[in-house]
Amino acid sequence: MTAYADVSLFPRNAKPLSSYRKYWAERFGVAPFLPMSRDEMTQLGWDSCDIIIVTGDAYVDHPSFGMAVIGRMLENQGFRVGIISQPDWQSAEPFKALGKPNLFFGVTAGNMDSMINRYTADRKMRSDDAYTAGDVGGKRPDRAAIVYTQRCKEAYKDVPIILGGIEGSLRRIAHYDYWSDKVRRSVVIDSKCDLLLYGNAERAVVEIAHRLAAKEPVQQITDVRGTAFLRRETPEGWFEIDSTSVDAPGRVEAHVNPYLMISEQALEQGESCARNDEARAVADTANAKTKFKAGESPLVFAPNPSLQTPGKLKVPPRDRSVIRLPSYEQVKSDPVLYAHANRVLHLETNPGNARAIVQAHGEGPTARDVWITPPPIPLTTAEMDLVFDLPYARSPHPVYADENGSHDGATKIPAWEMIRFSVNIMRGCFGGCTFCSITEHEGRIIQSRSEDSVIREIEDIRDKVPGFTGVISDLGGPTANMYRIGCKSPEIESACRKPSCVYPDVCQNLNTDHSSLIHMYRRARAVKGVKKILIGSGLRYDLAVKSPEYIRELVTHHVGGYLKIAPEHTEMGPLSKMMKPGIGSYDKFKQLFDKFSEQAGKKQFLVPYFIAAHPGTSDEDMMHLAMWLKTHGFRADQVQTFYPSPMATATAMYHSGRNPLGRVTRTSETVDIVRGDRRRRLHKAFLRYHDANNWPLLREALKAMGRADLIGNGKKHLIPFHQPRIDGSYVSTRRKNSTEATPVRRSVKPGRVLTQHTGLPPRKKA
User: What is the count of structural domains for the chain?
Assistant: First the structure.
């Protein structure tokens, strides 16, 4: 292979969102709400919409709702934007309600994947929908991204369709679909959209809108990061890295293995170990830059010197490289190749070093490639402020209000009620939990707002949102305590391909300073009219223990009696498949939590969350978790059962039975998969060991596991011998002639309800 020298392997600085020339329609000004009807368009003086957004959610003009963020961002660029919310999808007529858009339709299934929104983890249909007025289910179709896109095409065949949102984002390649129990094609194929935008799409949608306004055909827009589209063949001048197979016969030097980290690439190519020393030198140089603080400067991806030595490591130019994944037909029929494709995809998620990805769909003359460009460049702090400072009404559209203008009762939108008084301070997550899709959608690089922008939003809530009582329900995001935290060095950040910055341990190159967050909390508390700031977002406790002062601040001022955290499990088997820390990290956090609660003179409790039936979890693991829960006095009312969402690494484990956290081969590590209703019910029953309805199933399982010693009436037993009757009395389940101790027979008054616990330690009698 020829050595490619003097080629930048990293993206240039992205064009700022505020640098575009405004579209001519800016003269119409800002709409109080983006119009949902022709009458509203007339009141605004519009004869047409430039862009129409079709969404599966009720329209809430708030920065926590995707349609509002994208709509207001496009309005900021001068475009006239209309909203079609939850249209009747039985025909194309509702999609013509605002007329023909001048530029394009923007389609999203909503803030949730429509299948997760509609069905439980047991595949049972839900009757409610938190993103619909009145909490009514059934207002959106299954696979809404596909249905809406096809209806838009039917309404106006010549109008480009730009698909976005989390449903499209997480289905951008061939993916395992839990509800049909099969691998489905990329949503780009099934929806027939012209472009798919994945991840947070402000940067991409603004560029695309201006290019379409300049009369550029949508088919020619193939160079925007964070997009997916169809191609017949790889264009000239691109270097294709073949990753269609896990079996490579003989020595292959034509391409760099896409699995390997930088130092491993050198070793595989026969280079000396000096390469590792060179990489360490990069880290040492970067760490010496003590003035750099994560989040304070625009994100700039710098070249990694360990990849710039001419003539040694033979790597094609990254901005002209594309990795060919196994085709849809291959991953559909071969679970091992599916796991392999999933691993390669996740290794290409760092915008500093990711390459384009291509996956063939179909065979012969009809074959087409789904081409996925590298992830979008994260927003700078100034751009985040621009997005969140847009003129949101911060309430549902008036169409959902009753005759008194209220959004209560039948018009209440639960999702809005939940975030009504909350503030989103950042985006992204570097945790990499395998069961979660936040990283796949928002990216692992934290994008933080400025403190001033957050304070302005708090003041807006105080002054503009009806019903505000002085309590901010949350200052958070995907994770509560990742604000302004990131890699200490742009060089290291650009080169890193790790899926997590905190697993198996917190990376030594990660800045764990919580001082910016502490300062924000203190300033927010001092805002006039604010009585309390609560933290409702999930907390990364293994990161928090690196800053005891943060825990002190949190516990003293921002916990309302209970704090939710998610250890997810106690056993290392499942934890290693989740990429979560050991229970020891929870213990350390609890010690500090209890210590600072006592110092503050407050009685406060941790409410831990756990997952049942996660890949890699044995029945014995769940038994040990249940004993841990009983020993610590926890009784969970609600239990989370593993839900295989599209594209998540744990979903790849569930489908393939392989572990894509390591190199996938025909003989690589297999994973214990919890399949079948009975076994999933059993794992859920272990988490609710205190529920008498679960005792028969647990007794049967414990006996089969050889752990009948856990059945009895003592403190060290998990469940009792006796089973309550309908009338409230107890019946013994001990077999006759058994050597087991005779249980104490008790009776209770008819109609007595067994107490269900909420995570608090058992109450002591007065």
Answer: 2
pTM of the predicted protein model? 0.86
Residues of each annotated binding site for [4Fe-4S] cluster = 429, 433, 436
What pLDDT does 730 receive?
Answer: 63
Position of tokens 């509560």? 480
pLDDT in tens, 646-672: 999 999 999 999 999 999 999 999 999
Rounded CA separation 760/655 (Å): 36
Q: What is the pLDDT of residue 316?
A: 79
Residues 195 and 264 in one domain: no
Candidates 315, 293, 251; CA nearest to 10 is: 315
Q: How far apart are CA 343 and CA 551, in angstroms?
A: 35
pLDDT at site 13? 66
100 with 150, same domain: the answer is yes
User: How confident is the model over 565-578, as pLDDT tens digits?
Assistant: 999 999 999 999 99
Does residue 149 form part of some domain?
Answer: yes
Q: Which phi and psi (to 5°) does residue 670 adopt?
A: -95, 160
Q: What is the pLDDT of residue 766?
A: 34
Phi-psi region of 717 (alpha: psi -120 to 50; beta: other; left: phi over 0): beta
C-alpha distances in Å from residue 22, one per residue of 44, 391, 582: 18, 17, 52
Distance CA 274, CA 30 (A): 59
Are both 212 and 252 inside the same structural domain? no
Classify residue 372: in a domain, yes or no: no
CATH code, domain with 152: 3.40.50.2300
> Strands of 81-85's sheet, edge to edge?
81-85, 51-55, 104-108, 161-164, 195-197, 227-231, 368-372, 356-361, 321-324, 239-242
Task: Please list, in sequence order, all residues whose beta carbon lies within 8 angstroms of the beta carbon of residue 458, skipping any fewer than 6 positions away.
Answer: 423, 472, 524, 527, 530
Cα Rg of the chain, angstroms: 27
Residues 189 and 297 in one domain: no
Question: Does pLDDT of 497 surpass 70?
Answer: yes
The answer on 182 and 78 residing in a single domain is: yes
Is 90 exceeded by the pLDDT of residue 417? yes
Same domain, 83 and 200: yes
**Side chain identity at residue 515, one-letter code:** S
Residue 300, pLDDT > 50, answer no
Burial class (CB in 10 A: 0-12, 13-18, 19+), 735: exposed
Does a structural domain hold residue 223?
yes
347 occurs within a structural domain: yes
- pLDDT tens, residue by residue, 348-372: 999 999 999 999 999 888 899 999 9
Could you tell me whether strands 321-324 and 356-361 are parallel, antiparallel, or unpaired per DSSP bridges?
Answer: parallel
Closest CA to 69 of 108, 26, 21: 108
Q: What does DSSP assign to residue 326?
A: P
8 A C-beta contact, residue 551 and residue 596 = yes
Both 136 and 253 in one domain: the answer is no
Domain ranges, residue 105: 17-231
For the stretch 152-171, pLDDT in tens is 999 999 999 999 999 999 99
pLDDT at 292: 38
Among residues 336, 366, 396, the one where a domain terminates is: 366
